[in-house]
């Protein structure tokens, strides 16, 4: 066949396609209600699946904007009881940086709560201490100035790198800022001390650099040599490294563990923490991986339901048009010609629904864009990306082909003689009807799968709400306060301001108790420190461990509603590090089942000059990180050395609205220039902790409702159309005396197995999704009686609805009208 002949055939096929497309448009005008329903269901399915794909693509699939991102690893530690700690000792980082042969690059960072002194006044911002290797590791560039090298920093060239946003807002994008010295006052995170320095500005980062953190956007970066340390001033750092080419993660971890063991051997220390390497994407995504993947799977199932609706209606229309199709094929229409006819109709339907679905996805992503700021990593944006559009178009194409292929295969299953013979009986062939029952079962299975996941997440939310956080949130409020003015800059002045603040609240009749803490539960994560434990009567007179450490003031436990389980709480005269209070879990881990009161601890390891201090009390465990995780062992020390602490106040009035308004005014009365964050009820800590789970559960619930709605209407539409196709037979049965019970039993025999198969398949599908559900569930499972009750109710409602449909029409007809029909 020459090219001219092939071109002619192609032109003929396109002409036939567009001619059939015109026929499909006229058919849509003749049946507007049917086509409107098909467009609504398919557009909803398209919109949901494209929206969920867009989120998954941005967070889980898109290549991170760094050089060789798959080779970048976070070096963290894990404890069998306390979970993961992303911070590493500075001595261990120094060993990695100098001796590792499996890592091509090693970088470190430490978060700072920083106050920048400017001519217009002080400005608070997030900042980071970073090693010179940090920026090359992530491919950062400058739009102004240069980034210092390791050798330059070691020679005294440490300095400041500004973010482009801070450069514009604080310095009006002035290029002369290079070389200018800025005065900074920074508090190291996790209570590791403070830094006061004057450093030059070395450069401004380019706008295309995205910080490799979940939701942190540092405004200022201090580049310094973090391999230089002393045991007295050692810090904890976040350490990242790039694997050398050809080196596996396991090989790198084995080498790094040997290097860490060498550091510990030099100080005769032991640790229960095990070093691990975590891929950068896993660190950035964190706990979002499972819920995002779960929502995408649920979106796919909703689309499958919508597609089965369209396929079911296509089967119904095929039954109605069996006579016309038989005549066309008897007159010479080939299967390929029938396929082109069905393809034109399917393309019109899927293309229009796809365009509407992309519009719905764009609107949905725009509405949910504010969530991206608080819930998604900083490396992700929320929008309809080109890949999402390509995905949507691919789904439209596949749907068009399937909507054309299905009726073509149904026609091909029966010989021409049987199709011609069906003309006299209305064309009720059995194959399309049987296929529609399969569609009903598949729709129910998909809907039940999504529903089971939604119910399990909702039950988890209920169970988490019953967890005791370890403190009494009622009638208590909290706010972060910070000492950063000049009057409190001298040594000990900040502690005096904090003490005056506590005295003012303690003597005010509107408040029961007040206290300060360096780390509120459920707010800033864990702060682990090295701790020495005295072990008299054993071969080793002491041992070391790492444990969550919190600085508090006397009155803190009373303000939090935490009661002693042994010993006593800190007294008002204990305003310095004279003793420890430990949580119940810490008492068990440090001292076993014996009495913890009277035993001795000290901060630091072998070389620590800190004094041994007695444990004077044991308090309830609190959930430091999340209510879904076990309460962390915690030690408390009465010390107010941090420059940022949380003020916790317990109100005397049950109403508390007036007393809440007194908190900022009383703080500013004591220290007019003292920065104070918004005062909020302590219960907000609990609400924020479960907000992510509740958001996931409610989004999945919305998808489940959409799935159930689409599945129910599709199933009931199928049952109703099949009922109408057997209208003559059912009228005759009623006229001859058949009763409703007989009809129900007959319908149950036909519909019941498909309904049961659909619900059972949905439960099985939800079980296979357990991997995505597992990390989100709390104290519930597939054997939960509440879930079983919901499934039974769902089956009953679907079954009852399906069985009552055949009666809804005929119960209104008398015998005369039946016989006349």
- Assign a percent range to the helix content: 40-55%
Strand count, sense and barrel status of the largest sheet are: 6 strands, mixed, barrel
Mean pLDDT: 80
In DSSP terms (H or I, runs of 4 or more residues), the helix count works out at 25
Which structural class do you get from the secondary structure elements?
A: alpha+beta
How many strand units?
23
Portion in strands: 15-25%
Radius of gyration: 35 Å
Overall description:
The structure is a single chain. The chain is α+β, with helices and mostly antiparallel strands. The longest helix is centred in the last third of the chain and has 43 residues, at 683-725. Helix 9 (289-320) packs antiparallel against helix 15 (430-465), helix 11 (335-367) runs antiparallel to helix 13 and helix 15 (430-465) packs antiparallel against helix 24. A six-stranded mixed barrel has the order 4-5-10-7-9-8. It has 25 helices and 23 strands.
List keywords for this structure.
18% strand; 6-stranded mixed beta barrel; alpha+beta; 821 residues; single chain; 6-stranded mixed barrel
Task: Briefly summarize what is shown.
The protein is an alpha+beta fold and 821 residues long. The chain is built from 25 helices and 23 strands.
List the helices and strands and how they pair.
Layout: H1 3-30, H2 32-61, E1 72-79, E2 83-85, E3 88-89, H3 90-99, E4 103-118, E5 121-130, H4 134-137, E6 142-145, H5 150-154, E7 159-162, H6 164-171, E8 181-188, E9 194-205, E10 220-223, E11 236-243, H7 249-266, E12 274-279, H8 280-285, H9 289-320, H10 322-330, H11 335-367, H12 369-375, H13 386-412, H14 416-421, H15 430-465, E13 476-482, H16 493-506, E14 511-517, E15 528-534, E16 542-552, H17 556-560, E17 564-567, E18 580-583, H18 584-591, E19 600-603, E20 613-619, E21 634-638, E22 644-651, H19 657-670, E23 680-681, H20 683-725, H21 727-735, H22 740-768, H23 770-774, H24 785-810, H25 815-820
Parallel strand pairs: 5-10, 7-9, 16-21, 18-20
Antiparallel strand pairs: 1-2, 1-11, 1-12, 3-11, 4-5, 4-8, 4-11, 6-9, 7-10, 8-9, 13-22, 13-23, 14-22, 15-16, 15-19, 17-20, 18-21, 19-20
Helix pairs in contact: 1-11, 2-9, 2-11, 2-13, 3-7, 9-13, 9-15, 9-20, 11-13, 15-20, 15-22, 15-24, 20-24, 22-24
